[in-house]
Design a protein that fits this description.
mainly alpha, two-stranded antiparallel sheet
């Protein structure tokens, strides 16, 4: 790779960050959309280049201002962060491509440039967290992403988004405050904010109470951000009442970034230095993961609003991700990271299909989409493909990660057998609530007096099918996510005794 490749970690953040004020100055909604989409596409291309470089064995470390760490700000990209960058930038790009036809019905033309500005700030914040190697700069990027996300969620026409975003703001602020308190305690004891330097220095003070308290604050704060059960109360309403393309973007990557940070901190900083922390990590996460799978899927069974149903499904999918991580094994962590990627593919495609339905249907409840498949066959076809991936049917991306998770669980002995039963039961419940949508769209007659529907706009439909076909492609050719996931697992476990 040529010399400019060393600047890619910085460009991953700089491109959307500098594009945001330029988009704000544009008066035309078409120009604002084109500029934001171009910036997101460029960020996606950078993420692809970083991922290919990581797979080729290249290391990406960037010193801001050429100041060496730990005195200066350092950026770095490894296999784990490269995978997250693919998720964030890919989800942003697909959602923005879909936004051209979706947002016109939800947001006034004069407000759209400001909306796209907030979008690019959210993209910069979410991309900045994986590339940052400094704990305080992670907090800064976290707040940039959070504040911009609040604007995006509340930007739609549904006034119910306002109490939803207020709840999200309160929970997000508590989570960020807990994280900052934990970082402050660690800085008090070690005198550094650089993650690599922190890992080395914390060993001398690991048995002191401030470090134990810091571990608790950071874990709970990031669990709030990641919507770990039972700290998920902000997620269903935020996903339900946000503009449809915003839900596509955030559902695919926002909780994944928080989980990334939770795993990065725990495996890099705490597990190598706190005696018995790996056992505490397992006992803390495994029961919560099981409850998330069962309760999240159970609530989704009874929801009649499509977006709320898929939101509770996301709570369950976070449970699958944390279940694999709780094994603290190579197979388990690989399955966890792999499911982060595959769930983003499935849920992004599902919410894109819901966005297509929203352009033609009077509502997003099961009764309002009755008979929709007769007039929107391509939209419902994409929904079925993405739903099969969410369930974990062979040939889809979801099957690959769930099979890897089951294999990791079976290696855990007697406990693993019970956990396999939980995984299978959760998948069966996913089959039921996805089938409820299929049944309504394919086998129920539309209500009398309802005007005939027509297919979604071609560009929106093309983006939706691109996401749906990605679920099939990575189900049949899963080498890229598996390579990145296994490399990420090795990086995380390298620090665990």
């Amino acid at each position: 790779m040529i010399e400019w490749s060393h600047h890619l970690p910085a460009l991953q953040v700089v491109v959307p960050m500098l594009s945001a004020p330029l988009v704000m100055l544009l008066r035309s909604r078409g120009l604002a959309w084109a500029a934001a989409t171009t910036a997101s596409l460029f960020s996606f291309a950078i993420a692809i280049a970083l991922s290919l470089g990581v797979l080729d064995g290249e290391t990406f470390n960037y010193r801001m201002g050429d100041w060496p760490a730990p005195y200066g700000i350092e950026l770095g990209v490894d296999a784990f962060s490269a995978l997250l960058l693919l998720l964030v930038t890919g989800a942003s790009t697909l959602a923005l491509l879909a936004a051209r036809h979706s947002l016109d019905a939800e947001i006034e033309a004069e407000r759209q440039p400001l909306f796209y500005t907030a979008w690019l700030l959210a993209l910069a914040g979410l991309a900045g967290i994986p590339v940052s190697a400094d704990a305080f700069n992670i907090f800064v990027f976290m707040e940039i992403a959070a504040l911009a996300s609040y604007v995006l969620i509340s930007g739609g026409p549904d006034r119910r988004a306002l109490p939803a975003v207020f709840k999200y703001l309160i929970m997000g602020t508590i989570g960020a405050t807990f994280y900052l308190i934990g970082i402050g305690l660690i800085y008090l004891m070690t005198g550094t904010l650089n993650l690599a330097d922190m890992e080395l220095r914390i060993h001398a003070v690991a048995d002191l109470k401030p470090i134990l308290v810091a571990a608790g604050f950071i874990t709970i704060g990031l669990a709030l951000k990641a919507a770990v059960f039972p700290l998920h109360v902000w997620l269903p309403s935020a996903y339900t009442y946000a503009p449809n393309v915003v839900t596509v973007f955030l559902a695919a990557c926002s909780t994944k970034v928080a989980i990334y940070l939770l795993l990065r901190f725990d495996f890099f900083v705490f597990q190598p230095n706190l005696v018995g922390h790996d056992v505490q990590f397992t006992y803390f996460l495994m029961p919560l993961a099981v409850l998330a799978i069962l309760i999240g899927s159970g609530v989704a069974l009874f929801e009649r609003n499509l977006k709320r149903m898929l939101a509770y499904s996301s709570v369950a999918q976070v449970g699958y991700i944390l279940l694999g991580a709780s094994f603290v094994s190579l197979a388990g962590v690989t399955a966890s990271v792999l499911h982060m990627f595959n769930h983003a593919l499935a849920k992004g495609a599902l919410f894109l299909a819901v966005t297509c339905l929203a352009t033609r249907c009077s509502g997003l409840r099961l009764d309002s989409i009755a008979g929709a498949a007769r007039h929107m066959p391509w939209t419902m076809g994409a929904f079925v493909v993405a739903g099969l991936s969410l369930i974990g049917i062979p040939g889809t991306a979801g099957f690959v990660s769930k099979w890897t998770l089951i294999s990791a669980a079976l290696a855990e002995g007697a406990t693993g057998g019970a956990l396999v039963a939980v995984i299978v039961l959760g998948s069966l419940m996913a089959l039921i609530y996805i089938w409820r949508v299929v049944e309504a769209a394919y086998f129920k007659a539309p209500e009398k007096g309802v005007a005939p529907l027509r297919e979604a706009p071609p560009m929106l439909l093309a983006v939706t099918w691109a996401a749906a076909l990605a679920n099939l492609y990575f189900g049949l050719v899963p080498s890229l996510p598996i390579s990145l996931s296994s490399a990420a697992a090795e990086i995380l476990l390298r620090h665990v005794p």
